[in-house]
Amino acid sequence: MTLELRTAGESHGPALVAIVMGLPAGLRLDRDAIDHDLRRRQEGYGRSPRQQLEQDRVEVLAGLRHGRTLGSPLALVIRNQDHENWAWGMSPWPPEGDASGKGTTPVTLPRPGHADLAGALKYGHDDTRHTLERASARQTAVQVAAGAVAKALLREIGIEVVGRALEIGGEATVEEWKHATDAARADRETLGGVIEVVSDGVPPGLGSYAEKETRLDARIAAALMGIQAVKGVEIGDGFALARVKGSEAHDEIRADRGRETNRAGGIEGGVTNGEPVVVRAAMKPLPTLMRPLRSVDLETGEPGAALVERSDVQAVEALAVVAEAAVAWELARAAREKFGGDALGDFLAAHTAYLERIGWPRNA
Ligand code: EPS
After folding, report:
1. Which residue lies with its CA nearest to atom 14 of ligand 1?
2. CA-wise closest residue to 279 among 236, 316, 322
3. 310 alpha carbon – ligand 1 mean position (Å)
4. Contact at 8 Å (CB) between 128 and 307?
5. What is the pLDDT of residue 302?
6. Both ends of the chain: CA-CA distance in Å?
């Protein structure tokens, strides 16, 4: 038993969709809790005016009845309100009538740092919009909806996952972030930053050392690296561990099997050890610049300036919410693999029996 997620959707297409497979039957979902996470993802100081246009709300098309999962595939949809401005340009079928609205002329000036050039070459696109619409971070909205579902499952076994921004543009306080974001906007620049996700209540034994595909740290790293603009991931003290001695790097084990320190970030050998799971991700500055970098026109082969299009100045606070969803998804997937069960009660009973066997929580 595992959890599976498939998504589809273009940034200015009609909608974003997700299909979630492998949830137990009987899990109660709260529409407001999902929408709350969608709203959190839209907030943040550096976001584009697009966020005033979108009011992301989840719609459920299948797999749920009267607020409880059925054990069948769960189908989630988030409509793109902005699509009405792109109805001709992003029409799934050959558009009728004269060209109107946005997205009507081909984009041939790839942005350094975006998937534009690689996508055009790889797929043979003569309009980089064919690439950028899917490469866009817009699709993280539906990942957050799926993550909110994962968090509902984790909450049943006492696991809480919380993401937050640590740094934006090299600054560490909210006031400084705002100032740096204002300055970047005025300068037609973009910023990156660092986020952290902490998961509490995780029992020992999620993930396995047996194969690299089952190591939870590898899965979490892949999940975070799979988010747009993420260029670095660390678990626990991560890169800092490379600079200290072994006696300063590891977390000594007390008689009750707890630890005084958590440099490992709650994962040893790819398996959770009962301490909080702590992960961080580094986000590069967004590649859509109002002061464009040098590029090439793919149609003419002439040098040119990269595409300039409405975008965010920075989306680090949004990344914290998206990363929270990604970590929750991986923990929920590992929990489904460990505890199984078609009905929620089976899943909970397996969790309880396991905790009894290992004598956890350690203070009980
Ligand atoms: C994005 C560019 C901006 C962002 C978008 C991601 O969109 P637009 O080009 O329509 O202004 O706002 O993110 C979202 C719409 C979202 O909901 O996160 C990009 O190029 O990746």
Report:
1. 138
2. 236
3. 8
4. yes
5. 98
6. 29
0.70 exceeded by pTM = yes
Round to whole Å and give the CA distance between 364 and 360: 7
User: Is any atom of ligand 1 closer than 6 Å to the C-beta of 85?
Assistant: no
Closest C-alpha to ligand 1, atom 17: 138
Closest among 207, 168, 205, 172 to 286, alpha carbons compared: 168
Which amino acid residue places its CA nearest to atom 4 of ligand 1? 311
Give tens-digit pLDDT for 159-175.
999 999 999 999 999 99
Q: What is the CA(139)–ligand 1 centre distance, in A?
A: 9
What one-letter code names the amino acid at 219?
Answer: R
| Residues 111/292, Cβ–Cβ less than 8 Å | yes
Question: In the chain, what are the domains?
Answer: 4-358 (3.60.150.10)
Q: Residue 137 — pLDDT band, cuts 50, 70, 90?
A: very high
| Site of tokens 């929620």 | 344
State if residue 137 touches ligand 1 by the CB under 6 angstroms criterion. yes
